[in-house]
Amino acid sequence: MLAVVRKLNDPSCTNETAGRVRIEVIAGKAPFRYTMKSNEAAISREWKQSTLMIEHAELGKGDYVLTLKDGANETLERKFKLTMPDALTITLGPDQKYSVAEPIVLNVSSQVPTNVPVTYRWENSFGFSSAAKSITVTEPAVYKVYVTKESDGCVFTDDIAITGASEQRLAVFPTLVRAEDTFSVGISLERPAAVAVQVMTSSGLLLERSNGTGNSEYQFTYIAKNPGLYLVVIQTPAGIETRKVVVQ
Question: What is the pTM of this model?
Answer without folding.
Answer: 0.82
